[in-house]
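pls design
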Protein backbone atom coordinates (compact mmCIF):
# COMPACT_ATOMS: atom_id res chain seq x y z
CA UNK A 1 0.00 0.00 0.00
CA UNK A 2 1.37 3.43 -0.94
CA UNK A 3 1.82 6.10 1.72
CA UNK A 4 -0.77 8.29 0.01
CA UNK A 5 -3.35 5.53 -0.03
CA UNK A 6 -2.56 4.77 3.62
CA UNK A 7 -3.28 8.39 4.53
CA UNK A 8 -6.79 8.03 3.10
CA UNK A 9 -7.42 5.25 5.63
CA UNK A 10 -5.86 6.82 8.74
CA UNK A 11 -8.21 8.61 11.16
CA UNK A 12 -8.08 12.41 11.19
CA UNK A 13 -7.91 13.95 14.66
CA UNK A 14 -11.16 15.93 14.65
CA UNK A 15 -11.38 18.07 17.78
CA UNK A 16 -14.47 19.08 19.75
CA UNK A 17 -14.13 22.72 18.74
CA UNK A 18 -14.44 21.80 15.04
CA UNK A 19 -17.50 19.63 15.72
CA UNK A 20 -19.07 22.49 17.69
CA UNK A 21 -18.27 24.98 14.92
CA UNK A 22 -19.97 22.73 12.38
CA UNK A 23 -23.06 22.40 14.61
CA UNK A 24 -23.29 26.15 15.19
CA UNK A 25 -22.36 27.51 11.78
CA UNK A 26 -23.35 24.73 9.37
CA UNK A 27 -19.83 24.33 8.02
CA UNK A 28 -16.25 23.88 9.13
CA UNK A 29 -12.85 24.24 7.46
CA UNK A 30 -10.25 21.71 8.55
CA UNK A 31 -6.53 22.09 8.02
CA UNK A 32 -4.14 19.36 6.95
CA UNK A 33 -6.82 16.83 6.10
CA UNK A 34 -4.77 15.67 3.13
CA UNK A 35 -1.04 16.02 2.59
CA UNK A 36 0.38 17.70 -0.52
CA UNK A 37 1.73 14.29 -1.56
CA UNK A 38 -1.70 12.67 -1.40
CA UNK A 39 -3.31 15.48 -3.37
CA UNK A 40 -0.52 15.27 -5.96
CA UNK A 41 -1.10 11.52 -6.27
CA UNK A 42 -4.77 11.87 -7.21
CA UNK A 43 -5.10 15.30 -8.84
CA UNK A 44 -3.85 14.24 -12.29
CA UNK A 45 -6.45 11.45 -12.44
CA UNK A 46 -9.24 13.79 -11.34
CA UNK A 47 -8.22 16.44 -13.87
CA UNK A 48 -7.82 13.85 -16.60
CA UNK A 49 -11.31 12.51 -15.98
CA UNK A 50 -12.78 16.03 -15.99
CA UNK A 51 -11.19 16.64 -19.40
CA UNK A 52 -12.33 13.23 -20.70
CA UNK A 53 -15.89 13.25 -19.37
CA UNK A 54 -16.83 16.93 -19.47
CA UNK A 55 -19.80 17.61 -21.76
CA UNK A 56 -19.71 21.43 -21.63
CA UNK A 57 -18.10 22.66 -24.82
CA UNK A 58 -19.66 26.10 -25.32
CA UNK A 59 -17.33 29.10 -24.95
CA UNK A 60 -17.74 30.82 -21.58
CA UNK A 61 -19.37 33.85 -23.16
CA UNK A 62 -22.18 31.72 -24.62
CA UNK A 63 -23.14 29.93 -21.38
CA UNK A 64 -25.76 30.79 -18.78
CA UNK A 65 -24.84 31.68 -15.20
CA UNK A 66 -24.80 28.03 -14.06
CA UNK A 67 -22.65 27.02 -17.02
CA UNK A 68 -20.16 29.82 -16.36
CA UNK A 69 -19.80 28.82 -12.70
CA UNK A 70 -17.89 25.57 -13.21
CA UNK A 71 -17.33 22.43 -15.23
CA UNK A 72 -19.16 19.64 -13.40
CA UNK A 73 -18.39 15.92 -13.76
CA UNK A 74 -20.04 13.41 -11.43
CA UNK A 75 -19.33 9.93 -10.07
CA UNK A 76 -15.73 9.73 -11.17
CA UNK A 77 -15.42 6.66 -8.94
CA UNK A 78 -17.33 4.65 -11.52
CA UNK A 79 -14.77 5.44 -14.22
CA UNK A 80 -11.48 4.88 -12.45
CA UNK A 81 -10.00 2.51 -9.87
CA UNK A 82 -7.86 5.37 -8.59
CA UNK A 83 -10.94 7.56 -8.12
CA UNK A 84 -12.74 4.70 -6.36
CA UNK A 85 -9.80 4.58 -3.96
CA UNK A 86 -10.01 8.32 -3.29
CA UNK A 87 -13.78 8.63 -2.97
CA UNK A 88 -13.97 5.56 -0.71
CA UNK A 89 -11.54 7.12 1.79
CA UNK A 90 -12.46 6.07 5.36
CA UNK A 91 -10.56 9.15 6.62
CA UNK A 92 -12.83 11.57 4.76
CA UNK A 93 -16.01 9.58 5.48
CA UNK A 94 -15.32 9.29 9.20
CA UNK A 95 -15.04 13.07 9.47
CA UNK A 96 -18.48 13.34 7.82
CA UNK A 97 -20.01 10.85 10.27
CA UNK A 98 -18.48 12.62 13.27
CA UNK A 99 -19.70 16.02 12.13
CA UNK A 100 -23.22 14.75 11.45
CA UNK A 101 -23.32 12.83 14.71
CA UNK A 102 -24.28 9.56 13.02
CA UNK A 103 -22.82 6.07 13.35
CA UNK A 104 -22.36 5.47 9.64
CA UNK A 105 -22.42 7.32 6.32
CA UNK A 106 -23.06 6.32 2.71
CA UNK A 107 -21.81 7.88 -0.49
CA UNK A 108 -24.48 9.93 -2.25
CA UNK A 109 -22.29 10.85 -5.18
CA UNK A 110 -19.05 12.62 -5.96
CA UNK A 111 -18.51 15.51 -8.33
CA UNK A 112 -15.55 17.45 -9.65
CA UNK A 113 -16.17 21.20 -9.84
CA UNK A 114 -13.60 23.01 -11.96
CA UNK A 115 -14.02 26.78 -12.19
CA UNK A 116 -12.17 27.79 -15.33
CA UNK A 117 -10.00 30.87 -15.62
CA UNK A 118 -12.56 33.65 -16.08
CA UNK A 119 -15.32 31.41 -14.74
CA UNK A 120 -18.20 33.32 -13.21
CA UNK A 121 -19.89 33.51 -9.84
CA UNK A 122 -21.43 30.41 -8.29
CA UNK A 123 -24.76 31.86 -7.09
CA UNK A 124 -26.00 31.52 -3.51
CA UNK A 125 -27.81 28.20 -3.00
CA UNK A 126 -28.31 25.23 -0.68
CA UNK A 127 -27.41 21.80 -2.03
CA UNK A 128 -30.30 19.98 -0.39
CA UNK A 129 -32.75 21.72 -2.71
CA UNK A 130 -31.64 19.03 -5.19
CA UNK A 131 -31.87 16.02 -2.85
CA UNK A 132 -35.04 14.10 -1.80
CA UNK A 133 -33.91 13.37 1.77
CA UNK A 134 -36.04 12.95 4.89
CA UNK A 135 -33.57 14.67 7.25
CA UNK A 136 -30.70 17.15 7.18
CA UNK A 137 -28.09 14.46 7.97
CA UNK A 138 -26.09 15.07 4.80
CA UNK A 139 -22.84 16.89 4.15
CA UNK A 140 -20.55 17.86 1.29
CA UNK A 141 -16.77 17.65 1.57
CA UNK A 142 -15.19 20.37 -0.61
CA UNK A 143 -11.61 19.36 -1.44
CA UNK A 144 -9.47 21.90 -3.32
CA UNK A 145 -6.65 20.37 -5.33
CA UNK A 146 -4.47 23.47 -5.07
CA UNK A 147 -4.04 26.36 -2.67
CA UNK A 148 -7.10 28.52 -3.38
CA UNK A 149 -6.70 32.28 -2.88
CA UNK A 150 -9.69 34.61 -2.82
CA UNK A 151 -9.03 35.60 -6.45
CA UNK A 152 -9.66 31.98 -7.48
CA UNK A 153 -13.21 31.90 -6.04
CA UNK A 154 -13.09 29.60 -3.00
CA UNK A 155 -16.34 28.43 -1.45
CA UNK A 156 -17.87 31.00 0.92
CA UNK A 157 -20.55 30.31 3.53
CA UNK A 158 -23.41 32.12 5.24
CA UNK A 159 -22.53 31.13 8.79
CA UNK A 160 -25.53 29.80 10.71
CA UNK A 161 -27.82 29.69 7.68
CA UNK A 162 -28.44 25.93 7.90
CA UNK A 163 -31.68 26.65 9.81
CA UNK A 164 -32.87 29.49 7.55
CA UNK A 165 -35.90 28.37 5.52
CA UNK A 166 -36.19 31.29 3.10
CA UNK A 167 -34.81 30.51 -0.35
CA UNK A 168 -34.76 26.75 0.02
CA UNK A 169 -37.00 26.52 -3.03
CA UNK A 170 -34.47 28.17 -5.36
CA UNK A 171 -32.10 26.34 -7.72
CA UNK A 172 -28.69 27.82 -8.56
CA UNK A 173 -29.58 30.80 -10.72
CA UNK A 174 -29.44 34.57 -11.11
CA UNK A 175 -32.62 34.65 -9.01
CA UNK A 176 -31.07 32.67 -6.15
CA UNK A 177 -28.07 35.00 -6.14
CA UNK A 178 -30.27 38.11 -6.03
CA UNK A 179 -32.87 36.87 -3.54
CA UNK A 180 -30.49 35.14 -1.15
CA UNK A 181 -27.86 37.86 -1.21
CA UNK A 182 -30.49 40.26 0.13
CA UNK A 183 -32.20 37.83 2.52
CA UNK A 184 -29.00 36.54 4.12
CA UNK A 185 -27.71 40.08 4.60
CA UNK A 186 -31.03 41.16 6.11
CA UNK A 187 -30.84 38.28 8.60
CA UNK A 188 -27.22 39.23 9.35
CA UNK A 189 -25.73 35.83 8.62
CA UNK A 190 -21.98 36.55 8.39
CA UNK A 191 -20.44 35.67 5.05
CA UNK A 192 -17.23 33.70 5.60
CA UNK A 193 -15.03 33.99 2.52
CA UNK A 194 -11.49 32.80 3.15
CA UNK A 195 -8.67 31.31 1.10
CA UNK A 196 -7.99 27.58 1.38
CA UNK A 197 -4.52 26.27 2.09
CA UNK A 198 -3.36 23.19 0.23
CA UNK A 199 -4.70 20.22 2.19
CA UNK A 200 -7.52 22.20 3.80
CA UNK A 201 -10.99 20.70 3.32
CA UNK A 202 -14.39 22.14 4.20
CA UNK A 203 -17.56 20.28 5.14
CA UNK A 204 -20.96 21.96 4.87
CA UNK A 205 -24.51 20.82 5.60
CA UNK A 206 -27.07 20.28 2.87
CA UNK A 207 -29.07 23.35 3.95
CA UNK A 208 -26.13 25.69 4.57
CA UNK A 209 -26.24 28.50 2.02
CA UNK A 210 -22.99 29.07 0.16
CA UNK A 211 -21.63 30.62 -3.02
CA UNK A 212 -18.31 31.39 -4.71
CA UNK A 213 -16.79 34.40 -6.42
CA UNK A 214 -15.48 34.32 -10.01
CA UNK A 215 -12.06 32.87 -10.80
CA UNK A 216 -9.98 35.92 -11.66
CA UNK A 217 -6.72 33.98 -12.02
CA UNK A 218 -5.23 32.50 -15.17
CA UNK A 219 -5.50 28.88 -13.97
CA UNK A 220 -8.54 26.68 -13.22
CA UNK A 221 -9.80 26.28 -9.67
CA UNK A 222 -9.70 22.49 -9.35
CA UNK A 223 -11.99 21.01 -6.69
CA UNK A 224 -13.21 17.51 -5.91
CA UNK A 225 -16.32 17.05 -3.77
CA UNK A 226 -17.85 14.05 -2.03
CA UNK A 227 -21.41 14.06 -0.70
CA UNK A 228 -22.18 11.85 2.30
CA UNK A 229 -25.53 10.91 3.83
CA UNK A 230 -26.54 9.19 7.04
CA UNK A 231 -26.48 5.46 6.25
CA UNK A 232 -30.06 5.28 7.58
CA UNK A 233 -31.32 8.14 5.38
CA UNK A 234 -34.83 7.67 4.02
CA UNK A 235 -35.97 9.02 0.68
CA UNK A 236 -38.96 11.34 0.49
CA UNK A 237 -41.28 12.12 -2.41
CA UNK A 238 -39.41 14.52 -4.74
CA UNK A 239 -40.74 18.07 -4.64
CA UNK A 240 -39.12 19.31 -7.86
CA UNK A 241 -37.83 17.96 -11.15
CA UNK A 242 -34.23 18.07 -9.96
CA UNK A 243 -35.05 15.77 -7.03
CA UNK A 244 -36.88 13.43 -9.40
CA UNK A 245 -33.79 13.27 -11.59
CA UNK A 246 -31.51 12.73 -8.59
CA UNK A 247 -33.63 9.84 -7.35
CA UNK A 248 -33.47 8.13 -10.75
CA UNK A 249 -29.77 8.86 -11.34
CA UNK A 250 -28.06 8.50 -7.98
CA UNK A 251 -30.37 6.03 -6.20
CA UNK A 252 -31.46 3.66 -8.98
CA UNK A 253 -34.04 1.14 -7.86
CA UNK A 254 -34.91 3.05 -4.70
CA UNK A 255 -38.30 4.72 -4.20
CA UNK A 256 -39.77 7.27 -1.79
CA UNK A 257 -40.10 5.67 1.63
CA UNK A 258 -37.04 3.46 1.10
CA UNK A 259 -33.81 3.78 2.97
CA UNK A 260 -31.07 4.65 0.49
CA UNK A 261 -29.61 1.31 -0.51
CA UNK A 262 -28.74 1.33 -4.21
CA UNK A 263 -25.43 -0.08 -5.52
CA UNK A 264 -24.34 3.52 -6.16
CA UNK A 265 -24.58 4.37 -2.43
CA UNK A 266 -22.14 2.12 -0.57
CA UNK A 267 -21.45 2.55 3.13
CA UNK A 268 -18.06 4.27 3.41
CA UNK A 269 -17.78 4.42 7.18
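designed seq:
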Amino acid sequence: MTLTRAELEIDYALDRASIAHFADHGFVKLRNVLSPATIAAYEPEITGKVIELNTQHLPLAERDTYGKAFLQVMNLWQDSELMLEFVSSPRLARIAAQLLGVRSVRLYHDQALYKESGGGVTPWHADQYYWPFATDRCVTAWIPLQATPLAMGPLAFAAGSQSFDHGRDLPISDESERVLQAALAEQEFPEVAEPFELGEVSYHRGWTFHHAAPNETDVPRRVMTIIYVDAEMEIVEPVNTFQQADLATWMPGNRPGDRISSPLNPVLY
